[in-house]
Amino acid sequence: MRIAVTGTHRVGKSTLIEALEERLAEYRVVDEPYHLLEEEGYEFASPPSLEDFLEQLRCSMELLEDEEGARNVLFDRCPLDFLGYLLTHEESDSFDPEEWLARVRSTLQTLDFVVLVPIEERDRIQLPAHEDPELRAEVDEKLAWLLLDDPFELGVEVLPVHGSTTARVSQVLERLGRG
């Protein structure tokens, strides 16, 4: 199976992936584009610019394309994450999603399903003072809209998970028929 874990920042995506990696030894984890680009020397603005999110979107699509034949892969983030950030960015007027949708749709079709990790009523991760809680909430809302309402007809299967890390892992394992 090819699975992507998506959600706004600081909702527990990486924690979930680490826990899944322990339970799914035959799976390989592909780190999120931000970290991979940083390792390559890409310098992100603070806060990230529209171009920074476009670069992560490109990288995310390339990762899915490069790994197209590979099975048993967990992706930390997918192109939808970056569509969510781009559509909520203060310069979103400069971003035309239509230019990207064909390739996004194509790369998403290589996934078996996407795990959506939403912000929960009782936040599981403390948000640092320098983080913008409104942006985080906007991205969370936009991701839910993109994945659950599917306005762009991307047709990807979505598994929303809730609760503790243990509960989230159980939900994914159940979807995989290992629950």
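Next protein, fold it too.
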Amino acid sequence: MIQTTKTLLAATLCCVFAAGLLSTPAQAEDSNYKIAVVDMQNVLAKYDKRKEKYEDLQREVDTLQAGIEKMADRIEAAKKDYDERKDSLDDDQLAKLETTIKNDYADYQNELQKSQREIDTMEERVLKEVLKDIQSAIEKIAEGGNYHLILNKGRGPRGAVLFAAPRIDITSKILLELNK
């Protein structure tokens, strides 16, 4: 209880100190700061190039998936064949079939992991390219509009901005710049 009270008192003092610092007017040549927010989630969702890149990525994923599904089908067929024939085969033949199925399954697992790494790499490359474009558009709008600060208008309690007046939201300007 005492520790909680001390922690609460320390936090309160820090808040009071910080509020005092923040309430003092900033000394600068230009006291009219221009601040804006951008809804990055919205920009990512509506950026045409991102949509196109992810459609291309999905086609690649579908191609890789088709190959993996063929391998899975072969393994299932081999298992079915094994189950149907296991009573009529001797131990050596059964062992060979089991080994073949196990090896095919190991190959399947390896191919699945390889494909996942390939997909992750492609997605990371797309995301880096898209974020670079977005950053460039934000910088262009910021410089052209003489903005001093642009924040991400994240949603929810983890967002950087808990409230922003709609008049300082420049998300539409960023999307216009990106999608032109």
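About the second fold: Confidence is low (pLDDT under 50) at residues 1-29.
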